[in-house]
Specification:
The protein is an alpha+beta fold. The protein has 2 helices and 3 strands; from the N terminus they run E-H-E-E-H. The longest helix is centred in the last third of the chain and has 15 residues.
Length: 90
């Protein structure tokens, strides 16, 4: 039996308003990262570090399709940078 396809992924950590919607952040990550919404999820909600009041650091993991295995790292970096620009953290 063939092995299931493992999709490459990228992670981005952004500081977002505490009262913000995770759904909105995931939508921006999906759009800017050029991947399907169902492949984007909250990876971690961090509680430590120097973060301004009423803000939280949120790590989002997004999987994507990439036909060329040699370019996975570059593609993940490109998508991550696009997401950070879209969210105003890059």
């Amino acid at each position: 039996m063939p092995q299931p396809l493992v999709r490459p992924a990228f992670n981005v950590t952004v500081v977002v308003p505490e009262a913000g919607s995770a759904e909105d952040i995931l939508r921006v990550v999906s759009e800017a990262g050029c991947t399907e919404c169902e492949l984007v999820m909250v990876g971690d909600l961090l509680q430590a570090g120097r973060v301004p009041a009423a803000r939280i650091p949120l790590t989002v993991r997004a999987k994507f399709a990439c036909a060329d295995a040699d370019s996975v790292r570059a593609e993940a970096c490109r998508r991550s940078e696009a997401v950070l620009r879209a969210l105003g953290d890059g």
